[in-house]
């Protein structure tokens, strides 16, 4: 991930690591990053109620040589769209404010995920899907709808595909897994015990397991391959929003990869499925 482009996200993620004085500086910047780019070091120190040396220490802790260099990085972060990473919806926000914040946060989170994800890992994941004799998508809670969407996409590739959000069915399928089966486990946090146990069971029985989850999580550690997905929101506190969009977009990338890997000879099959829906739709109205 590009350090300069994601400075705001880094500040937000490191809030708990900062000492009390440096955290005050971080909070002033996150509350209005645009305004922070216009502050002198004295003005920022005054707004945060800290000393100027504290501001300099804060800037150096994020890799900047000093405050002027830090302001340049901050401006670049704003230009990249990362500003909305830190803009949570407030209780007094009106429709225009919360709508723009939600859209802005989602755009910024997708941009961050795009920069973070490894194209080689995507290619390896496509290999696993191409080689699979059948694919099972597992998800719980908010990720269960993502698993169902994946089933809707991937059945088109002429493979047996299922989606399951029931933990008992997930355990039963994992217990009879075989070499050639692929289990795609979708979990934002990667800390759900039942999914980690199902993934472990499937691997022990010879299946491949692909995780769409957080880097370094318990689930990521037991998967054959994990596509590391950043954590732009705290789902222990807030209802999940951007996490599902990121998961769906990663699955779209995988579906595109499988389509391209299958080649042009597979296009008539996809066209046949698409054309089968034409009779179910009213014709578009002409103006």
Q: How is this structure best summarized?
A:
With 287 residues, the protein is an alpha/beta fold. It has helices spanning 7-13, 20-31, 33-36, 41-48, 52-61, 67-79, 95-116, 119-131, 142-154, 167-175, 193-204, 218-222, 242-262, 267-275, and strands at residues 134-139, 161-164, 181-186, 208-213, 225-228.
What would you say this structure looks like, in words?
The chain has 287 residues and is of the alpha/beta class. The protein folds into two domains: 7-114, Arc Repressor Mutant, subunit A; 117-275, Rossmann fold, CATH 3.40.50.10490. The protein contains 14 helices and five strands. It has helices at residues 7-13, 20-31, 33-36, 41-48, 52-61, 67-79, 95-116, 119-131, 142-154, 167-175, 193-204, 218-222, 242-262, 267-275, and strands spanning 134-139, 161-164, 181-186, 208-213, 225-228. It has a five-stranded parallel sheet with strand order 2-1-3-4-5, with helices on both faces. Helix 12 (218-222) links the parallel strand 4 (208-213) and strand 5 (225-228). Helix 7 crosses helix 13, helix 8 (119-131) packs across helix 13 (242-262) and helix 9 (142-154) packs parallel to helix 13. Residues 1-5 and 82-86 have low confidence and may be disordered. This is MurR/RpiR family transcriptional regulator. GO terms for molecular function: carbohydrate derivative binding; DNA binding; DNA-binding transcription factor activity.
């Amino acid at each position: 991930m590009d350090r300069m482009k994601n400075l705001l996200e880094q500040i937000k993620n490191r809030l708990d690591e900062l000492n009390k004085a440096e955290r005050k500086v971080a909070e002033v910047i996150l509350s209005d990053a645009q305004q922070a780019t216009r502050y002198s070091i004295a003005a920022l120190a005054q707004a945060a109620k800290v000393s100027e040396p504290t501001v300099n220490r804060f800037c150096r802790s994020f890799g900047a040589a000093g405050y002027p260099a830090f302001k340049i990085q901050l401006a670049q972060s704003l230009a990249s769209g990362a500003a909305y990473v830190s803009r949570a919806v407030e209780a007094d926000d009106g429709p225009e404010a919360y709508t723009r914040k939600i859209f802005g946060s989602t755009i910024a989170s997708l941009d961050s995920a795009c920069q973070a994800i490894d194209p080689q890992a995507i290619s390896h994941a496509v290999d696993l899907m191409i080689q699979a004799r059948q694919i099972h998508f597992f998800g719980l809670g908010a990720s269960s709808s993502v698993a169902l969407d994946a089933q809707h996409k991937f059945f088109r590739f002429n493979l047996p595909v299922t989606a399951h959000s029931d933990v008992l069915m997930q355990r039963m399928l994992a217990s009879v897994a075989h070499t050639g089966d692929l289990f795609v486990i979708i979990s934002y946090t990667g800390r759900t015990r039942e999914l980690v146990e199902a993934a472990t069971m499937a691997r022990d029985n010879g299946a491949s397991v692909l995780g769409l989850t957080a880097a370094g999580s318990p689930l990521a550690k037991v998967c054959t391959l994990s596509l590391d997905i950043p954590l732009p929101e705290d789902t222990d506190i807030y209802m999940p929003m951007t996490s599902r969009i990121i998961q769906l977009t990663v699955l779209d990338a995988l579906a595109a990869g499988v389509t391209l890997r299958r080649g042009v000879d597979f296009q008539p099959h996809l066209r046949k499925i698409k054309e089968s829906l034409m009779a179910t739709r009213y014709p578009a109205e002409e103006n």
